[in-house]
Amino acid sequence: MSTCRITFYEERNFGGRSYDCSSDCGDLSSYMSHCYSCRVHSGCFMVYDRPNYMGNQYFLRRGEYPDCMSMGMSGYFRSCRMIPMHRGSYRMRIYERENFEGQMYELMDDCDSIMDRYHMSNCMSCHVMDGHWLMYEQPHYRGRMMYFRPGEYRSFSNMGWGSGMRFMSMRRIMDSWY
User: Is a pLDDT exceeding 80 seen at residue 165?
Assistant: First the structure.
């Protein structure tokens, strides 16, 4: 597998100074004053509109992104996280309420609607055992998204979106996406 690599550019359409990155970067302003476009040469990344992996998140795979505004960003790229490739099984438990309370279901594949599949109206905490996942605030992989790697997530409201954050669909980040 080749190394994950992304190049950020100060201006739209790949203009201005550039910065090559192949790992996590908590604050792109250390390298350039602003960043409005990027090219993903290899791998997958999450980019964020605030420093330190906060704010709205956007999933990027190999390709060109000439204008972050066309992706729905209100500002510009401020931080990025490299998503390591995962081979093997995927497993996650989702919970109806915070702190792993309420109904619990275990997922091993994509779910385009927890309401349709499990008759579950909220998902407010989760435990990712295996794999890397994207979770979306609306069914059918729509709305704001958040990246989850293996770990325990007791409360989504503590993750930068405020109280009441919940997810209604989730999908695996597959090795074929790289």
Answer: no
